[in-house]
């Protein structure tokens, strides 16, 4: 009963927090003349990925690498397939050329790095150092492009908030997202554990979906408000952040043995980001039917996981 209550309260906090975060980040981007794509790739993506970061770090320190790696893999599958799928199904998502030609290839490269590093069954400190170095390069590269004005702006409605209030909205939104996700994960994990589900599957499904609730809520709200640049930037940035920063820092603190994460899981993660890039490349937009396809593929993957538990 307590687990169910935690799930309900957690979802409510996440949804409300996503609305505040989107308004604040959009207003900040407009006031400071910063492209929404950059805000999505940096501030929003990092903020909404904090639940994954803390869950993975604590899991690795406590000696449960299945949960740590499964959380990142599952979250990235959730991001590219379900979040983009649901967001595009609700409102077709326009995507800038810079995102398709520069940011998405980087996300694919980060995903491929993780797949190749996992072939030997662990993520060593050397692997983690390479991941973290790639993250630093991505951040510097993104900010330099923005400074040179090479990142196109996706316009939406104007948000009448001062810079100070925008920051307040962002902080409040992030706090609600992280707190709500924490409640959700605790409640859902208790329910799943009571049903006898394995740690790896919990990481790939319950924890991954729970810690990705901020990305889902933020992207859906942003897409509904016509801020598709921020929505897709949030997904791409979160995927890059999850792999390069989260596993980079986690692996430096505690090298991880990859157990319980199958080749199928890794391939689905890679296929998801490739499909996202392919759909985006056509007319620089993800249509409703393409969103439905991504969402259905996610449902198929979850069904496969449940059947093979």
From TrEMBL:
Q: Where is the Sodium/calcium exchanger membrane region domain?
A: 3-142, 166-306
Q: Origin, by domain of life? A: Bacteria
Instruction: List the transmembrane segments.
Output: 36-61, 73-95, 123-143, 163-185, 231-254, 260-279, 291-307
Q: What is its main location?
A: membrane
Membrane topology value: Multi-pass membrane protein
Write out the entry's keywords from A to Z. Membrane, Transmembrane, Transmembrane helix
Q: Where in the cell is it found?
A: Membrane
Q: Which NCBIfam families match?
A: calcium/sodium antiporter (TIGR00367)
This protein is called Calcium/sodium antiporter
Q: Which organism is it from?
A: Xylanibacter caecicola
